[in-house]
Amino acid sequence: MKNLFKLFSIIILIITSNSNSFAAEKVEYLKTDWSFKGLFGKFDRASLQRGYQVYTEVCASCHSMKYLSYRNLAEPGGPEFSEAQAKAIAASFEVTDGPNSDGEMFTRPGKLSDKFVMPYDNVKAAQAANGGAYPPDMSVLVKARGGGVDYIYSLLQGYEEAPSNVSLDDGVYYNKYMYGNKIRMAAPLSDGLVEYGDGTNATVEQMSKDVTTFLMWSAEPHLESRHQMGFKAIVYLIILTVLVYFSMKRIWSRVESKV
Amino acid sequence: MSDHDYRPKSKVGQWFNDRLPLLTLANHLTDYPTPKNLNYWWTFGGILTFCLITQIVTGLTLAMHYIAHADMAFESVEHIMRDVNYGWLIRYIHANGASMFFLAVYIHIFRSLFYGSYKAPREIIWIIGIIIYLLMMAAAFMGYVLPWGQMSFWGATVITNLFSAIPLVGEGIVTWLWGGYSVDNPTLTRFFTLHYLIPFLILGLVVLHIWALHVPGNNNPVGIDIKKPSKDTVPFHPYIVIKDGFALLMFMIVFAFFVFYAPNILGHADNYIEANPMVTPAHIVPEWYLLPFYAILRSVPDKLLGVVAMLSAILILAVLPWLDTSKIRSAVFRPLYKQFYWILVADVLILGYVGAMPAEGLYLLIARVATAYYFLHFLVILPVLGFKEKTLPVPLSITEPVLGGSPNLAAARNKESKIE
Questions:
Q1: Which of A168, B61, B224, B229 could form a disulfide with B33 if both were Cys (CB 3.0 to 4.6 A apart)?
Q2: How many C-beta neighbours within 10 Å does residue B409 have?
């Protein structure tokens, strides 16, 4: 048996060391403290609100967020804008509605129940406006990328001059965290691009963190209640398990056998 | 079955039971004599029943909100995640429940392999189990297609395309499976229908699996036939019920951890990108529980032979009771088999690992060696081992190994002979 375990661990060692050499080619993502990680992880409300500002002033000109509604902005566990604020945000967008009784489409100010207005009418229009590349919908973007929030956070800060051996076509940019290093999106953030209402200094790093937090919430709007319920559920299960364990010991003490 | 003489106490009970002996069945299930030395590896049968029921209940709820249409499936899943009350919880239980189901079934199968539970007189239980396992894989695969993400779409394309390897009629079969010339809406709707049907087929087979089990009774870690009921057995209720319950709770803690704290860790990120027939993902990989078979498929250079190898890898298990020629069931008394068993476990884990890696270079070589070994184990090692292996002496009853190694051993033996 012992020899076998040795053999087994050697095999595992070979495999893992091999995969490490593969991983060496990968770049390490930038790290930051995410308030929503961990057993009791919660969103940073202020960061979510700033993140929404970055999204709507910067990203939203190309990226849609079609699964979110304006009402979500006021719901618990999210940016928690007041209902009046959320209504004002919704009303600042023109929504196409209809057809009315004359059979005509018309535009009206947005309501809480409306989905986020999309920057383009359809995928083709988005591609046409962006040199053939489709800016992906951002609703679940952090869940749709292997590196998750760390990847998005790094990508936003990963623009740099292309090395001399890499030639870039027109409209293609170099990003050290992008798969293949070539990206169609120009560096979206620059220091002071937005003016935060709460006085926070709008550095690229700060904006990246805020907008990534916002994207985490948009992908997992119930993350906070999930964490809260999870903790209660697991504590409950552990207590019940202990009680059942002692009941079992007691019942099995009647027979001459080990449990 | 020792309870044919059971008679309900009340008049009404007797009247009912004479017409439909449900109470006799209930009595059989509670009194069912179970070996008292079953260890925790035996609790996974109950855990699997829990998994099946969980999948059915959460699945029914999801089906009330899901829309099986290529244009709306992805959106309806997001609707469940965002707007349905506790929809995120139900969906995460269902998605992670599939992984938990397979985790439990692999432990259940490998327990059977270790203790020789597939051997006479339990071959039918084992074969029904293999059919359940096959249906589980079909259900899991089709379920993974339903969210209509990129992995759903391309996984469905790759797997259904395997049928095109069949000579002459292959292409026709694939078109028939798809309901068109590519994976599209007709494929999605039929997968949804079948995904809804299969769990109930599994449920029926589980009943047969348990029925077949209750004829010879449980195998046990010592692997010997025991007298039932006797001092080697305990009634199923309360002894096994409480023990299974305890193990189930431990299992649920692990389950809850995944659902609440790492709900997407077992899935692939690409499945949160809506299906796009024009964009192929860089690596198309199945869910983790199918990876060993995926590795076997890819390790054979020829498509048809690859499919044959993959199917044989599963179907070879069905004839395992006849490939294993040893008269001794439990690996505890088979020193050589015990070593080969652990090598097989490592082999399957390695296959799973290389199945997740690109099929090239060193990975492909490892996959080929591991595939060859997998078949070698079942086709050569097991049959030969039964004749060559020098097994350890097997005890006469369970009571003996329970006390074995202690000074009481001789006393127990004496007691035994007195009783006889």
A1: B229
A2: 14
| C-alpha span between B145 and B155 (Å, rounded) | 7
Mean pLDDT value across chain A:
90
Structure tokens at B171: 């292409």
Q: What is the pLDDT of residue A2?
A: 52
Q: What ipTM does this complex have?
A: 0.90
**Per-residue model confidence as pLDDT tens digits over B168-210:** 999 999 999 999 999 999 999 999 999 999 999 999 999 999 9
Query: Pick from B98, B371, B388, B155: which is nearest to B283 by CA?
Result: B155
Q: Is B415 on the interface with A (CB under 8 A)?
A: no
Which stretches of chain A drop beneath a pLDDT of 70? 1-26, 257-259
Residues of B in contact with A229 (CB under 8 A): 89, 260
Contact present, B216 and B122 (Cβ < 8 Å): yes
CA distance B117 to B38: 12
| Angstrom distances, CA of residue A258 to CA of B175, B239, B249, B310, B399 | 58, 12, 19, 42, 11
Chain A hits for B269, Cβ within 8 Å: 143-146, 148
User: What stretches in chain B show pLDDT beneath 70?
Assistant: 1-4, 400-420
Which is it for strands A182-183 and A94-97: parallel, antiparallel or unpaired?
A: unpaired
Task: Name the closest residue on chain B to residue A258, using Cα atoms.
Answer: B37
Q: Residue A187 and residue A137: Cα distance in Å, rounded?
A: 18
| Gap from B359 CA to chain A (nearest CA, Å) | 14
Between the CA atoms of A108, A110, A112 and A116, what dihedral angle is there, to the nearest 10 degrees? 140
